[in-house]
Fold each of these.
Amino acid sequence: MDDDSLAPFVDALASALIVMVLVSIFFLVQTAMTVQEKAKLIVINDKPIEESEPAPNPIVFRELINIDLDNNTLTYLLNFKMDEQLITQIRSQMLSGQTVEITVTSSDAEKKSVVNMLRFLGFMDLPDEIDVKTKIEQSDKLLSTLSWEIN
């Protein structure tokens, strides 16, 4: 075999190598972009649960990660649901004041923070006599917090 007959095989191998490198780069970039979403799921799966309970899924269950009524703070991952008892406790606190300032601190998009804020206000169903002020702050933390101050 001479060089002229081997040249097409060498070209084909070089082209195949280039395609493999490009596919590898694509998968590396895709993996790097999904690391944060996977980290959010790991935080949920690391939450201690009883053996009889199914593993929580943040999209289906939307559990609050931490509830701190002493500091008026709720910590959540993507969004949250609240049971009637918690709604009643928080609402009774808010009804004792004239002004309530609600702050959402999140690394999520502002639209998602607005939706979570509106959802919380819908749960509270405060009367018109109470002045409600809202604020959305950006954060670099994985978990989002919703806090309120009562004056």
Note: The chain has two domains: 3-45, 66-150.
Amino acid sequence: MALKELVTNADGRLSTTTTVQFLTFLTLAGTLIYSVYLDRGYVPDLFLYLAGFGGGLVATKGAVSAYKAAKESEK
């Protein structure tokens, strides 16, 4: 599996949803490693904020796409 497959759709175009999810995973993994290395106690707070931000982006995009599809089907 190539890195390109992780961030593209089946037709080869860049997928914003997949890209956001992949980058959120990398950010959370990096945050975990760095926080453990520094022996910080606020790791759960960082995880909550970063995961909420990444999840919120994907959920918002999905809601907007569903709303647009519903509006187009009404026409």
Note: The chain is about 80% helix and 0% strand.
Amino acid sequence: MKKVYIFIVLGFMLGVSVHAKSQEPQYKIIANSNQESDIKEMYEVKGKLLEDFKTWVKGVDNKDQVLADHQSDYQATYKQGVYKIVLGKGKGKSLSGEMKVNYCESTKDIETKSFLFDWLF
């Protein structure tokens, strides 16, 4: 019976795979209400946050620690990779996304294609 348990545990351990990825920190901003002025304020806070994030992470390896250190700048909370800012009562729309330093970077490979080469060969 012990052998059966050992085989079950070993089978489970071999069947489990771990996919480790480095994730970019996320942000979530919740507006005070659904009024136009509050939504406009939410987008202004987003722009200022992303600008500040670029300056905070210059020369720093650990982005998570930087965000944890700067929670008081926006009266925010940083839990499980999400930097959450609640404006006012927080009963309005929310805005979320990734906090990147450069939004033009991509890890996808660019596939080159030549129509002339495809036509000839």
Note: The chain has a mean pLDDT of 82.
